[in-house]
Design a protein that fits this description.
This protein is α/β, with parallel strands linked by helices and 422 residues long. It contains 14 helices and 19 strands. It folds into four domains: 107 residues, Rossmann fold (3-Layer(aba) Sandwich); 119 residues, 2-Layer Sandwich (Transcription Regulator spoIIAA), CATH 3.30.750; 105 residues, Transcription Regulator spoIIAA; 55 residues, OB fold (Dihydrolipoamide Acetyltransferase, E2P) (Beta Barrel). Helix 10 packs parallel to helix 12 and helix 13 runs parallel beside helix 14.
């Protein structure tokens, strides 16, 4: 979501005559786009602001947008008095106002609706991967999650608006579409004629565009994996055989405390349904360890789920108390030491799963999407249909962004391959 926001902020400011620079000391306006999903991320924001304050030229204006701005509000000005603006994730389209009045401090952290999407200009050049938000906010209110506070209740964008953005992305360079939402598979929009549109309808429509060759979506919620969406994996070849479906914990007791679906068997049945319609599909997940009152037995259940599902790529974190959440004031908070031990054990299992899957890819041919050069400039980096990084020697001839690559080697982190010539 922040990648999308950053691209649109840049496009909006370019419409006002500005151009991007990577040199903070040369910038006239500096925008820090922020995330507050974990405490560590918020702390990094204020560390970065301190560095910017010292490095920027005296006339430059600077500020924060996004979730930390919404979380901090006017307190951000108290912590960093030199800040010029603090704009929440639904207010960054107000940035041109600060260009008109650079001497006025701008604070706007209100939870609006979807008006920012109407205010933002269309991209004139889109990267090969286009991120298309289909909704804002979330209604599930997991007890650890700050999103309902920072981004508000769930609002689905009009179907035609999403498709308009998708068509523009296809016409201006996109090969892959990634539909975005905090609860993306919960997308529901009813038009003026009473027709209900779901995420499956967006996928069908996007797949009609000849320029678009790959479609995916993130982040999904288990109970929103409806049959029509599951069936799309068996019907639409452009939909990648890869799904991030966070489980967070393998313990029904902890899931209940998280205010998440606590029926582990139902989660496993969804995976079985997906594999029945798309045998080559692979699943990734998100995990939280050390949630308040998590016992060794609860954690062992999480390990068992990781072993059974064999997630090919997952994100795991120590529980981080966030303001405005119910879990932050729950009793029996887990010590950092225990969290660290459990995270190490879980990561060890997840890494083994990932290594095993990567090794199983050796010898296979995959249609991969070019990301660009590696840091050395001697190799090209691709993404497989399973979002693995695949590195090849840079050829001395022009190649297309989509290439059939034969996988020749693998480790936990990435694959190695060679272009499969016709």
């Amino acid at each position: 979501m922040n990648v999308y926001d950053g691209q649109r902020i840049a496009a909006m400011l370019e419409k006002h005559g500005l151009s991007q620079t990577n040199d903070v000391s040369d910038a006239d306006i500096i925008i820090l786009n922020t995330c507050s999903v974990r405490e560590k991320a918020t702390n990094k924001v204020y560390s970065a602001l301190g560095r910017i304050r010292r490095a920027k030229k005296a006339s430059a204006i600077f500020g924060i947008v996004g979730c930390v701005a919404r979380e901090s509000g006017s307190d951000a000005f108290k912590r960093i008095p030199e800040l010029n603006f603090v704009l929440g994730p639904q207010s960054y389209h107000k940035l041109p106002d600060i260009l008109k009045n650079p001497d006025t401090k701008l604070l706007n952290i209100d939870l609006g609706g979807l008006e920012k999407f109407d205010e933002l200009p269309q991209m004139t050049k889109t990267p090969t991967v286009a991120y298309i938000p289909v909704q804002e906010g979330c209604n599930h209110c997991c007890t650890y999650c700050i999103v309902p506070y920072t981004r508000g209740r769930e609002l689905s964008r009009p179907f035609n608006d999403v498709i308009k953005d998708t068509i523009n992305a296809a016409k201006t360079g996109a090969i892959e579409i990634c539909f975005l939402g905090q609860n993306v598979n919960g997308y529901k929009y009813t038009d003026e004629n009473g027709k209900l549109y779901r995420l499956s309808d967006l996928i069908k429509e996007a797949a009609k565009l000849p320029e678009i060759q790959r479609i995916r979506f993130t982040s999904s919620y288990p109970t929103e994996m409806t049959d029509d969406l599951i069936e799309m994996f068996g019907i639409e070849d452009k939909l990648l055989p890869f799904l991030n479906m966070p489980i967070q914990s393998g313990s029904p007791r902890i899931l209940k405390k998280m205010n998440r679906p606590d029926d582990i068997e139902n989660y496993k049945n969804i995976v079985k349904k997906l594999k029945s319609v798309r045998p080559d599909i692979q699943i990734s997940s998100d995990f939280i360890v050390g949630f308040p009152d998590e016992t060794d037995e609860d954690f062992e259940q999480t390990l068992n789920v990781a072993r059974e599902i064999k997630y090919i790529n997952s994100y795991s974190f120590k529980y981080s108390p966030r303001p405005h959440t119910a879990a932050a004031i729950m009793p029996n908070q887990i010590s950092e030491q225990i969290k660290s031990v459990r995270l190490q054990k879980l990561d060890s299992q997840l890494n083994e799963n990932q290594r095993e899957f990567n090794m199983s890819c050796i010898g296979k041919e995959m249609l991969c999407l070019l990301e660009g050069d590696d840091k050395t400039g001697r190799h090209l980096v691709f993404r497989t249909p399973y979002m693995q990084q695949c590195i090849i020697e840079k050829p001395d001839y022009e190649i297309s962004p989509l290439q059939k690559i034969k996988i020749t080697d693998a480790n936990k982190a990435s694959l190695r391959g060679e272009i499969k010539l016709k």
